[in-house]
Amino acid sequence: MHSNHLLLEEPIRMASILQPSKPSFFPAMTKIVGTLGPKSRSVEVISSCLKAGMSVARFDFSWGDPQFHQGSLENLKTAIKGTKKLCAVMLDTVGPELQVVNKSKHPISLQADSFVVLTPDQQREATSDQLPINFSDLSKAVKTGDTIFIGQYLFTGKETTSVWLEVKEVKGEDVVCLIKNSATLDESLYTLHVSQIPIDLPTLTDKDKEVISTWGVQNNVDFLSLSSTRSAEDVRRAREYLSELGNLKETQIFAKIENVEGLKHFDEILQEADGIILARGNLGIDLPAEKVFLFQKAAVYKCNMAGKPAVVTRVVDSMTDNLRPTRAEATDVANAVLDGCDAILLGAETLRGLYPVETISVVGKICAEAEKVYNQDLYFKRAVKYVGEPMTYLEAITSSAVRAAIKVKASVIICFTSSGRAARLIAKYRPTMPVISVVIPQIKSNQIRWTVSGAFQGQGKGGGGRFGRRNLLST
Protein backbone atom coordinates (compact mmCIF):
# COMPACT_ATOMS: atom_id res chain seq x y z
CA MET A 1 0.00 0.00 0.00
CA HIS A 2 1.28 3.45 -0.91
CA SER A 3 -0.49 5.83 1.43
CA ASN A 4 1.76 7.90 3.70
CA HIS A 5 -0.39 11.00 4.19
CA LEU A 6 -3.84 11.35 5.66
CA LEU A 7 -6.08 12.78 2.95
CA LEU A 8 -7.49 15.41 5.31
CA GLU A 9 -7.19 19.16 5.10
CA GLU A 10 -5.80 20.78 8.23
CA PRO A 11 -6.26 22.55 10.49
CA ILE A 12 -9.94 22.00 11.30
CA ARG A 13 -11.36 24.70 13.55
CA MET A 14 -13.37 23.23 16.42
CA ALA A 15 -15.89 26.10 16.15
CA SER A 16 -16.73 25.05 12.60
CA ILE A 17 -17.88 21.65 13.87
CA LEU A 18 -20.71 23.32 15.79
CA GLN A 19 -21.92 25.34 12.81
CA PRO A 20 -24.87 23.82 10.91
CA SER A 21 -24.07 22.56 7.41
CA LYS A 22 -25.25 24.71 4.52
CA PRO A 23 -27.55 22.93 2.06
CA SER A 24 -26.14 22.61 -1.46
CA PHE A 25 -27.54 21.68 -4.87
CA PHE A 26 -25.41 18.51 -4.93
CA PRO A 27 -25.67 17.06 -1.39
CA ALA A 28 -22.57 14.84 -1.83
CA MET A 29 -20.19 13.90 -4.62
CA THR A 30 -19.94 10.36 -3.24
CA LYS A 31 -22.65 8.24 -4.82
CA ILE A 32 -25.18 6.25 -2.79
CA VAL A 33 -26.37 2.89 -4.13
CA GLY A 34 -29.70 1.85 -2.61
CA THR A 35 -31.04 -1.70 -2.79
CA LEU A 36 -34.75 -1.72 -3.63
CA GLY A 37 -36.86 -4.28 -1.75
CA PRO A 38 -40.09 -4.77 0.21
CA LYS A 39 -39.61 -1.63 2.32
CA SER A 40 -38.38 0.61 -0.48
CA ARG A 41 -40.23 -0.20 -3.70
CA SER A 42 -43.23 2.13 -3.67
CA VAL A 43 -43.15 5.24 -5.86
CA GLU A 44 -43.47 7.39 -2.74
CA VAL A 45 -40.50 5.84 -0.92
CA ILE A 46 -38.30 5.68 -4.04
CA SER A 47 -39.06 9.37 -4.74
CA SER A 48 -37.96 10.22 -1.20
CA CYS A 49 -34.82 8.09 -1.63
CA LEU A 50 -33.94 9.97 -4.84
CA LYS A 51 -34.47 13.32 -3.15
CA ALA A 52 -32.35 12.14 -0.20
CA GLY A 53 -29.41 11.37 -2.51
CA MET A 54 -29.73 7.86 -4.03
CA SER A 55 -28.24 7.87 -7.53
CA VAL A 56 -28.02 4.14 -8.29
CA ALA A 57 -30.80 1.62 -7.64
CA ARG A 58 -29.62 -1.94 -7.02
CA PHE A 59 -31.76 -4.95 -7.86
CA ASP A 60 -30.52 -8.02 -5.99
CA PHE A 61 -31.56 -11.29 -7.60
CA SER A 62 -30.43 -13.43 -4.65
CA TRP A 63 -34.08 -13.17 -3.58
CA GLY A 64 -37.34 -12.12 -5.24
CA ASP A 65 -38.49 -13.08 -8.73
CA PRO A 66 -38.09 -10.99 -11.92
CA GLN A 67 -41.73 -9.88 -11.74
CA PHE A 68 -41.17 -8.41 -8.27
CA HIS A 69 -38.07 -6.54 -9.44
CA GLN A 70 -39.84 -5.37 -12.61
CA GLY A 71 -42.56 -3.82 -10.46
CA SER A 72 -39.91 -2.03 -8.41
CA LEU A 73 -38.21 -0.78 -11.59
CA GLU A 74 -41.45 0.56 -13.06
CA ASN A 75 -41.98 2.46 -9.82
CA LEU A 76 -38.41 3.77 -10.06
CA LYS A 77 -39.10 5.11 -13.57
CA THR A 78 -42.23 6.87 -12.31
CA ALA A 79 -40.27 8.33 -9.38
CA ILE A 80 -37.49 9.56 -11.72
CA LYS A 81 -40.03 11.37 -13.89
CA GLY A 82 -41.74 12.87 -10.85
CA THR A 83 -38.58 14.05 -9.07
CA LYS A 84 -36.49 14.79 -12.20
CA LYS A 85 -33.57 13.06 -10.42
CA LEU A 86 -31.35 10.74 -12.48
CA CYS A 87 -30.79 7.21 -11.22
CA ALA A 88 -28.83 4.36 -12.79
CA VAL A 89 -29.86 0.68 -12.59
CA MET A 90 -27.61 -2.05 -11.16
CA LEU A 91 -28.34 -5.75 -11.57
CA ASP A 92 -26.70 -7.82 -8.82
CA THR A 93 -26.11 -11.49 -9.66
CA VAL A 94 -26.56 -14.40 -7.25
CA GLY A 95 -23.22 -16.03 -8.05
CA PRO A 96 -21.92 -19.12 -6.26
CA GLU A 97 -23.98 -18.56 -3.12
CA LEU A 98 -24.48 -21.39 -0.63
CA GLN A 99 -27.87 -21.36 1.08
CA VAL A 100 -29.66 -23.15 3.88
CA VAL A 101 -32.92 -24.63 2.55
CA ASN A 102 -35.75 -24.22 5.07
CA LYS A 103 -38.90 -25.22 3.19
CA SER A 104 -41.12 -25.19 6.28
CA LYS A 105 -40.01 -21.61 7.12
CA HIS A 106 -40.37 -22.46 10.85
CA PRO A 107 -37.80 -20.88 13.22
CA ILE A 108 -34.85 -23.17 13.95
CA SER A 109 -33.26 -22.93 17.37
CA LEU A 110 -29.55 -23.82 17.57
CA GLN A 111 -27.90 -24.28 20.97
CA ALA A 112 -24.22 -23.62 21.70
CA ASP A 113 -22.06 -26.74 22.26
CA SER A 114 -24.61 -28.95 20.44
CA PHE A 115 -24.06 -30.62 17.08
CA VAL A 116 -25.82 -29.96 13.77
CA VAL A 117 -25.47 -31.84 10.47
CA LEU A 118 -25.21 -29.94 7.17
CA THR A 119 -26.65 -32.19 4.46
CA PRO A 120 -27.01 -31.79 0.66
CA ASP A 121 -30.28 -33.78 0.81
CA GLN A 122 -32.74 -30.94 0.26
CA GLN A 123 -35.71 -33.26 0.81
CA ARG A 124 -34.91 -33.43 4.52
CA GLU A 125 -36.63 -31.02 6.87
CA ALA A 126 -34.59 -28.23 8.45
CA THR A 127 -34.41 -28.82 12.22
CA SER A 128 -32.14 -28.05 15.18
CA ASP A 129 -30.22 -31.26 14.35
CA GLN A 130 -29.91 -30.97 10.57
CA LEU A 131 -29.80 -28.19 7.99
CA PRO A 132 -30.25 -29.02 4.28
CA ILE A 133 -28.06 -26.90 1.96
CA ASN A 134 -28.03 -26.28 -1.83
CA PHE A 135 -24.45 -27.52 -2.43
CA SER A 136 -23.62 -31.21 -2.82
CA ASP A 137 -19.81 -30.93 -2.61
CA LEU A 138 -19.43 -29.25 0.79
CA SER A 139 -18.09 -32.50 2.28
CA LYS A 140 -15.28 -32.51 -0.31
CA ALA A 141 -14.42 -28.83 0.25
CA VAL A 142 -14.07 -28.79 4.06
CA LYS A 143 -11.96 -30.55 6.66
CA THR A 144 -12.04 -30.92 10.46
CA GLY A 145 -11.45 -27.59 12.20
CA ASP A 146 -12.78 -25.37 9.38
CA THR A 147 -15.09 -22.48 10.31
CA ILE A 148 -18.55 -22.11 8.76
CA PHE A 149 -20.77 -19.07 9.21
CA ILE A 150 -24.55 -19.10 8.68
CA GLY A 151 -26.35 -15.77 8.68
CA GLN A 152 -29.51 -14.11 7.48
CA TYR A 153 -29.18 -12.84 3.95
CA LEU A 154 -27.92 -9.24 4.09
CA PHE A 155 -26.81 -10.04 7.63
CA THR A 156 -27.18 -7.12 10.02
CA GLY A 157 -24.59 -8.13 12.59
CA LYS A 158 -26.94 -9.53 15.22
CA GLU A 159 -25.43 -12.60 16.88
CA THR A 160 -28.94 -13.80 17.79
CA THR A 161 -29.76 -14.47 14.12
CA SER A 162 -26.43 -15.89 12.96
CA VAL A 163 -24.33 -18.84 13.97
CA TRP A 164 -20.67 -19.91 13.84
CA LEU A 165 -19.95 -23.60 13.32
CA GLU A 166 -16.78 -25.66 13.57
CA VAL A 167 -16.43 -28.73 11.35
CA LYS A 168 -15.97 -31.81 13.55
CA GLU A 169 -16.47 -34.71 11.16
CA VAL A 170 -17.28 -35.50 7.51
CA LYS A 171 -19.67 -38.45 7.09
CA GLY A 172 -20.10 -39.26 3.40
CA GLU A 173 -21.84 -36.18 1.94
CA ASP A 174 -22.86 -34.89 5.39
CA VAL A 175 -20.79 -32.47 7.49
CA VAL A 176 -21.11 -32.67 11.29
CA CYS A 177 -20.50 -29.33 13.02
CA LEU A 178 -20.18 -28.04 16.57
CA ILE A 179 -22.38 -24.99 17.23
CA LYS A 180 -20.27 -22.17 18.74
CA ASN A 181 -23.05 -19.76 19.76
CA SER A 182 -26.79 -20.03 20.42
CA ALA A 183 -28.97 -18.51 17.73
CA THR A 184 -32.41 -18.73 16.12
CA LEU A 185 -32.73 -18.91 12.34
CA ASP A 186 -36.20 -17.41 11.91
CA GLU A 187 -36.36 -16.49 8.21
CA SER A 188 -36.55 -18.65 5.09
CA LEU A 189 -33.30 -17.45 3.46
CA TYR A 190 -29.94 -17.93 5.17
CA THR A 191 -26.59 -17.95 3.46
CA LEU A 192 -23.66 -20.16 4.37
CA HIS A 193 -20.04 -19.04 4.16
CA VAL A 194 -17.00 -21.27 4.62
CA SER A 195 -13.94 -19.28 5.69
CA GLN A 196 -11.13 -19.29 3.10
CA ILE A 197 -12.36 -22.41 1.30
CA PRO A 198 -12.68 -22.25 -2.54
CA ILE A 199 -16.17 -23.28 -3.69
CA ASP A 200 -16.23 -25.06 -7.05
CA LEU A 201 -19.21 -23.29 -8.59
CA PRO A 202 -19.30 -20.95 -11.63
CA THR A 203 -19.22 -17.21 -10.88
CA LEU A 204 -21.88 -16.50 -13.51
CA THR A 205 -24.46 -19.24 -12.94
CA ASP A 206 -27.12 -20.44 -15.38
CA LYS A 207 -29.71 -18.66 -13.25
CA ASP A 208 -27.69 -15.43 -13.52
CA LYS A 209 -27.43 -15.76 -17.31
CA GLU A 210 -31.17 -16.31 -17.59
CA VAL A 211 -31.90 -13.15 -15.54
CA ILE A 212 -29.37 -11.04 -17.49
CA SER A 213 -30.60 -12.24 -20.92
CA THR A 214 -34.25 -11.51 -20.03
CA TRP A 215 -34.65 -8.89 -17.30
CA GLY A 216 -31.26 -7.26 -17.91
CA VAL A 217 -31.72 -6.95 -21.68
CA GLN A 218 -35.34 -5.83 -21.39
CA ASN A 219 -34.38 -3.01 -19.01
CA ASN A 220 -31.04 -2.09 -20.58
CA VAL A 221 -29.23 -2.10 -17.22
CA ASP A 222 -26.37 0.35 -16.56
CA PHE A 223 -24.31 -1.82 -14.22
CA LEU A 224 -23.78 -5.52 -13.62
CA SER A 225 -22.58 -6.31 -10.11
CA LEU A 226 -20.67 -9.60 -10.52
CA SER A 227 -20.95 -11.40 -7.18
CA SER A 228 -18.01 -13.41 -5.81
CA THR A 229 -15.58 -12.39 -8.56
CA ARG A 230 -12.52 -14.58 -8.07
CA SER A 231 -10.38 -13.93 -11.15
CA ALA A 232 -9.98 -11.64 -14.16
CA GLU A 233 -11.30 -14.51 -16.27
CA ASP A 234 -14.64 -14.22 -14.42
CA VAL A 235 -14.93 -10.61 -15.62
CA ARG A 236 -13.85 -11.47 -19.17
CA ARG A 237 -16.47 -14.23 -19.42
CA ALA A 238 -19.17 -11.90 -18.11
CA ARG A 239 -18.17 -9.23 -20.63
CA GLU A 240 -18.23 -11.74 -23.49
CA TYR A 241 -21.70 -12.82 -22.40
CA LEU A 242 -22.94 -9.22 -22.29
CA SER A 243 -21.48 -8.55 -25.75
CA GLU A 244 -23.38 -11.53 -27.16
CA LEU A 245 -26.63 -9.99 -25.91
CA GLY A 246 -26.31 -6.92 -28.14
CA ASN A 247 -27.73 -3.96 -26.25
CA LEU A 248 -25.70 -4.63 -23.07
CA LYS A 249 -22.32 -3.98 -24.73
CA GLU A 250 -21.94 -0.73 -22.81
CA THR A 251 -23.13 -2.10 -19.46
CA GLN A 252 -20.34 -1.64 -16.95
CA ILE A 253 -19.17 -4.61 -14.90
CA PHE A 254 -18.42 -4.00 -11.23
CA ALA A 255 -16.49 -6.91 -9.72
CA LYS A 256 -17.67 -7.72 -6.22
CA ILE A 257 -14.74 -8.88 -4.08
CA GLU A 258 -16.01 -11.00 -1.20
CA ASN A 259 -13.52 -13.77 -0.54
CA VAL A 260 -9.80 -14.52 -0.29
CA GLU A 261 -9.61 -15.73 -3.90
CA GLY A 262 -10.82 -12.34 -5.14
CA LEU A 263 -8.36 -10.62 -2.81
CA LYS A 264 -5.42 -12.68 -4.13
CA HIS A 265 -6.27 -11.82 -7.75
CA PHE A 266 -7.29 -8.23 -7.02
CA ASP A 267 -4.79 -6.49 -9.32
CA GLU A 268 -5.75 -8.50 -12.40
CA ILE A 269 -9.49 -8.17 -11.61
CA LEU A 270 -9.09 -4.38 -11.32
CA GLN A 271 -7.54 -4.25 -14.80
CA GLU A 272 -10.51 -6.08 -16.35
CA ALA A 273 -13.43 -4.61 -14.38
CA ASP A 274 -15.03 -1.18 -14.78
CA GLY A 275 -15.29 -0.78 -11.02
CA ILE A 276 -14.86 -2.68 -7.74
CA ILE A 277 -17.35 -3.41 -4.95
CA LEU A 278 -15.70 -4.25 -1.63
CA ALA A 279 -18.27 -6.61 -0.11
CA ARG A 280 -17.18 -6.27 3.49
CA GLY A 281 -19.90 -8.60 4.78
CA ASN A 282 -18.41 -11.80 3.40
CA LEU A 283 -14.86 -10.43 3.38
CA GLY A 284 -15.21 -9.78 7.10
CA ILE A 285 -15.85 -13.49 7.56
CA ASP A 286 -13.06 -14.66 5.25
CA LEU A 287 -10.47 -12.29 6.78
CA PRO A 288 -9.50 -11.83 10.42
CA ALA A 289 -11.30 -8.74 11.78
CA GLU A 290 -8.03 -6.85 12.24
CA LYS A 291 -7.13 -7.24 8.53
CA VAL A 292 -10.34 -5.86 6.96
CA PHE A 293 -9.31 -2.19 7.19
CA LEU A 294 -5.96 -2.97 5.52
CA PHE A 295 -7.67 -4.54 2.54
CA GLN A 296 -10.09 -1.62 2.26
CA LYS A 297 -7.34 1.01 2.27
CA ALA A 298 -5.07 -0.89 -0.12
CA ALA A 299 -7.91 -1.76 -2.53
CA VAL A 300 -9.40 1.76 -2.58
CA TYR A 301 -5.96 3.27 -3.23
CA LYS A 302 -5.41 0.92 -6.18
CA CYS A 303 -8.86 1.80 -7.58
CA ASN A 304 -8.10 5.54 -7.22
CA MET A 305 -4.84 5.30 -9.12
CA ALA A 306 -6.45 3.16 -11.83
CA GLY A 307 -9.26 5.73 -12.16
CA LYS A 308 -11.97 3.14 -11.47
CA PRO A 309 -14.83 3.50 -8.96
CA ALA A 310 -14.48 1.83 -5.55
CA VAL A 311 -17.75 0.99 -3.81
CA VAL A 312 -17.83 0.10 -0.10
CA THR A 313 -20.64 -1.94 1.49
CA ARG A 314 -21.88 -2.69 5.02
CA VAL A 315 -21.33 0.66 6.71
CA VAL A 316 -24.50 1.39 8.71
CA ASP A 317 -25.94 -2.05 9.51
CA SER A 318 -27.58 -0.82 12.72
CA MET A 319 -29.81 1.56 10.72
CA THR A 320 -31.74 -1.49 9.50
CA ASP A 321 -33.63 -1.20 12.82
CA ASN A 322 -32.55 2.18 14.18
CA LEU A 323 -33.04 5.80 13.17
CA ARG A 324 -29.42 6.75 13.84
CA PRO A 325 -26.12 5.00 13.08
CA THR A 326 -23.69 4.16 15.86
CA ARG A 327 -20.75 6.51 16.40
CA ALA A 328 -18.44 3.85 14.97
CA GLU A 329 -20.58 3.51 11.82
CA ALA A 330 -20.75 7.29 11.25
CA THR A 331 -16.96 7.44 11.57
CA ASP A 332 -16.63 4.42 9.26
CA VAL A 333 -18.59 6.16 6.47
CA ALA A 334 -16.44 9.31 6.76
CA ASN A 335 -13.22 7.32 6.81
CA ALA A 336 -14.31 5.40 3.70
CA VAL A 337 -14.68 8.74 1.89
CA LEU A 338 -11.33 9.99 3.21
CA ASP A 339 -9.77 6.68 2.07
CA GLY A 340 -11.00 7.57 -1.43
CA CYS A 341 -14.11 5.43 -1.94
CA ASP A 342 -16.50 6.67 -4.64
CA ALA A 343 -19.79 5.19 -3.53
CA ILE A 344 -21.50 3.69 -0.50
CA LEU A 345 -23.71 0.66 -1.16
CA LEU A 346 -26.66 0.12 1.17
CA GLY A 347 -28.14 -3.38 1.40
CA ALA A 348 -30.37 -4.48 4.26
CA GLU A 349 -30.73 -0.86 5.42
CA THR A 350 -32.85 0.05 2.37
CA LEU A 351 -34.01 -3.39 1.23
CA ARG A 352 -35.90 -4.37 4.39
CA GLY A 353 -34.82 -1.75 6.90
CA LEU A 354 -37.32 0.41 8.74
CA TYR A 355 -35.72 3.71 7.70
CA PRO A 356 -34.51 3.56 4.07
CA VAL A 357 -34.92 7.29 3.36
CA GLU A 358 -33.32 8.40 6.63
CA THR A 359 -30.40 6.03 6.03
CA ILE A 360 -29.66 7.53 2.61
CA SER A 361 -30.00 11.04 4.01
CA VAL A 362 -27.66 10.41 6.97
CA VAL A 363 -25.03 8.64 4.86
CA GLY A 364 -25.18 11.47 2.31
CA LYS A 365 -24.67 14.10 5.01
CA ILE A 366 -21.68 12.25 6.46
CA CYS A 367 -20.14 11.89 2.98
CA ALA A 368 -20.65 15.62 2.31
CA GLU A 369 -18.90 16.56 5.57
CA ALA A 370 -15.97 14.27 4.81
CA GLU A 371 -15.68 15.72 1.29
CA LYS A 372 -15.39 19.26 2.72
CA VAL A 373 -12.16 18.34 4.53
CA TYR A 374 -10.83 15.95 1.88
CA ASN A 375 -7.35 17.04 0.84
CA GLN A 376 -7.96 17.27 -2.90
CA ASP A 377 -4.63 19.01 -3.55
CA LEU A 378 -2.62 16.17 -2.00
CA TYR A 379 -4.70 13.59 -3.86
CA PHE A 380 -4.26 15.40 -7.20
CA LYS A 381 -0.46 15.54 -6.80
CA ARG A 382 -0.36 11.88 -5.86
CA ALA A 383 -2.48 10.83 -8.84
CA VAL A 384 -0.37 12.87 -11.28
CA LYS A 385 2.84 11.46 -9.79
CA TYR A 386 1.49 7.91 -10.06
CA VAL A 387 0.65 8.35 -13.78
CA GLY A 388 4.17 9.68 -14.36
CA GLU A 389 5.63 11.08 -17.56
CA PRO A 390 5.17 11.07 -20.43
CA MET A 391 1.39 11.24 -19.88
CA THR A 392 -1.01 10.16 -22.57
CA TYR A 393 -2.69 12.99 -24.46
CA LEU A 394 -6.04 12.33 -22.72
CA GLU A 395 -4.51 12.12 -19.20
CA ALA A 396 -2.71 15.43 -19.78
CA ILE A 397 -5.86 17.19 -21.03
CA THR A 398 -8.14 15.88 -18.27
CA SER A 399 -5.73 16.48 -15.38
CA SER A 400 -5.06 20.02 -16.67
CA ALA A 401 -8.81 20.67 -16.95
CA VAL A 402 -9.30 19.71 -13.31
CA ARG A 403 -6.38 21.86 -12.13
CA ALA A 404 -7.69 24.86 -14.12
CA ALA A 405 -11.26 24.41 -12.86
CA ILE A 406 -10.07 24.41 -9.25
CA LYS A 407 -7.83 27.45 -9.74
CA VAL A 408 -10.63 29.55 -11.27
CA LYS A 409 -13.19 28.15 -8.76
CA ALA A 410 -15.46 26.89 -11.55
CA SER A 411 -18.97 25.78 -10.56
CA VAL A 412 -19.00 22.79 -12.86
CA ILE A 413 -16.91 20.99 -15.49
CA ILE A 414 -18.68 20.21 -18.75
CA CYS A 415 -17.18 17.42 -20.80
CA PHE A 416 -18.13 16.59 -24.39
CA THR A 417 -17.62 12.88 -24.96
CA SER A 418 -18.82 10.00 -27.10
CA SER A 419 -17.59 7.03 -25.08
CA GLY A 420 -17.54 8.58 -21.60
CA ARG A 421 -13.81 7.89 -21.28
CA ALA A 422 -12.78 11.55 -21.06
CA ALA A 423 -15.43 12.25 -18.43
CA ARG A 424 -14.29 9.29 -16.36
CA LEU A 425 -10.68 10.48 -16.55
CA ILE A 426 -11.67 13.98 -15.44
CA ALA A 427 -13.47 12.46 -12.47
CA LYS A 428 -10.39 10.33 -11.71
CA TYR A 429 -8.61 13.54 -10.64
CA ARG A 430 -11.44 14.35 -8.22
CA PRO A 431 -12.41 17.91 -9.03
CA THR A 432 -14.21 19.69 -6.20
CA MET A 433 -17.11 20.51 -8.52
CA PRO A 434 -19.53 18.22 -10.39
CA VAL A 435 -18.71 16.87 -13.85
CA ILE A 436 -21.50 16.98 -16.41
CA SER A 437 -20.84 14.86 -19.46
CA VAL A 438 -22.63 15.84 -22.68
CA VAL A 439 -22.68 12.80 -24.94
CA ILE A 440 -21.99 13.40 -28.61
CA PRO A 441 -22.96 10.25 -30.53
CA GLN A 442 -20.67 9.06 -33.30
CA ILE A 443 -22.44 8.87 -36.66
CA LYS A 444 -21.03 6.58 -39.36
CA SER A 445 -22.29 5.88 -42.86
CA ASN A 446 -21.40 3.29 -45.49
CA GLN A 447 -23.53 5.19 -48.09
CA ILE A 448 -26.36 2.71 -47.59
CA ARG A 449 -27.25 3.13 -43.92
CA TRP A 450 -26.35 5.34 -40.96
CA THR A 451 -25.24 3.95 -37.62
CA VAL A 452 -25.06 5.85 -34.36
CA SER A 453 -22.85 4.75 -31.47
CA GLY A 454 -21.76 6.22 -28.16
CA ALA A 455 -22.43 6.04 -24.43
CA PHE A 456 -25.97 7.33 -24.63
CA GLN A 457 -28.09 4.24 -24.04
CA GLY A 458 -30.30 4.04 -20.96
CA GLN A 459 -31.42 7.66 -21.07
CA GLY A 460 -35.13 8.00 -20.48
CA LYS A 461 -35.39 4.31 -19.61
CA GLY A 462 -35.05 4.60 -15.88
CA GLY A 463 -31.29 4.67 -16.28
CA GLY A 464 -29.43 7.88 -15.76
CA GLY A 465 -26.01 7.24 -17.15
CA ARG A 466 -23.11 5.69 -15.36
CA PHE A 467 -20.83 7.16 -12.75
CA GLY A 468 -17.18 7.18 -13.77
CA ARG A 469 -16.01 8.33 -10.39
CA ARG A 470 -17.74 9.85 -7.49
CA ASN A 471 -18.75 13.13 -9.13
CA LEU A 472 -19.64 12.07 -12.68
CA LEU A 473 -23.20 12.59 -13.88
CA SER A 474 -24.75 12.12 -17.30
CA THR A 475 -27.18 14.37 -19.08
TrEMBL record:
Domain Pyruvate kinase C-terminal: 395-453
Known EC number: 2.7.1.40
One Pfam family per UniProt: PK
InterPro entries: Pyr_Knase (IPR001697), Pyrv/PenolPyrv_kinase-like_dom (IPR015813), Pyrv_kinase-like_dom_sf (IPR040442), Pyrv_Knase-like_insert_dom_sf (IPR011037), Pyrv_Knase_brl (IPR015793), Pyrv_Knase_C (IPR015795), Pyrv_Knase_C_sf (IPR036918), Pyrv_Knase_insert_dom_sf (IPR015806)
Pathway the protein acts in: Carbohydrate degradation; glycolysis; pyruvate from D-glyceraldehyde 3-phosphate: step 5/5
Keywords (A to Z) from UniProt: ATP-binding, Glycolysis, Kinase, Magnesium, Metal-binding, Nucleotide-binding, Pyruvate, Transferase
Catalytic activities: pyruvate + ATP = phosphoenolpyruvate + ADP + H(+)
Cofactor(s) needed: K(+)
Chain segments annotated as coiled-coil in the UniProt record: none
Domain Pyruvate kinase barrel: 30-360
SUPFAM superfamilies cross-referenced by the UniProt entry: Phosphoenolpyruvate/pyruvate domain (SSF51621), PK beta-barrel domain-like (SSF50800), PK C-terminal domain-like (SSF52935)
A GO term for molecular function: pyruvate kinase activity
Presence of keyword Metal-binding: yes
PANTHER family attached to this UniProt entry: PYRUVATE KINASE
Similarity comment text for this entry: Belongs to the pyruvate kinase family.
Protein's name in the database: Pyruvate kinase
Organism of origin: Ilex paraguariensis
